[in-house]
Amino acid sequence: MSKTHLTMSVNKEVKRITTHILQEMKNRGEKIAMLTAYDYSMAAIVDDAGMDIILVGDSASNVMAGHETTLPITLDQMIYHASSVVRAAKRALVVVDLPFGSYQGNSKEALNSAIRIMKESGAHGVKMEGGVEIAESVSRILTAGIPVMGHLGLTPQSIYKFGTYTVRAKEEIEAQKLRDDALKLQELGCFAIVLEKIPAKLATEVSKSVQIPIIGIGAGQCDGQVLVIHDMLGINNDFKPRFLRQYANLYEQMNGAFKNYITDVKSKSFPNDKEQY
Fold this sequence. Notes:
By secondary structure, the chain is an alpha/beta fold.
């Protein structure tokens, strides 16, 4: 078999995850794995591992740009990150956060923001924080044929309203609103919803009460899970919330590698005779 034919054969084996496939996964009880990524190289590794969904999160504002909150990141910056990820993702569904200020309170602006993300990055859907408050924007985007993932519970874009990153919906009034919002987002046509940092019992209840997939982060057992890649790899050395399982400690490994490099350069052991022309 020629190299060209081999490449074509390999490419045919890669099946793109779609919103329809995600729904089928929920229907048969298969959990959905979702992780953030913000650049080409990292997204390529995540995709090759078999991730179902890659979220280009506005958490890039924190982990990539060093901001205290997700609020400062712009639509142009989100499109830049999304474009990089899309070029790497051959299998995963790529969902992009609509950043703060690009959809709240103005459904026309929301549609224009979503269209820009889809056209300029090649992503497969957008994610929006909020429930009935953003119903008009969600509906308008969906009418244009753009898949929308909802986000309820702790919504980081509203951090100054909450005033804290503590667990949400512990009180019945807020819990009932979350239930109602989830049903509303499903009714509007969202293909999935992220539930962030709410009681596990409530998250399980919502997962069972709606037909669409529910993805949890700090929300116990749902139809799937999502984490921020820098957190689960241990790159963010000081961020260790209760809900986080750290799968590596890259901070120490990378720090050690950098120190070894500095030592080798200063001691003139790098480059050696075999590492130069």
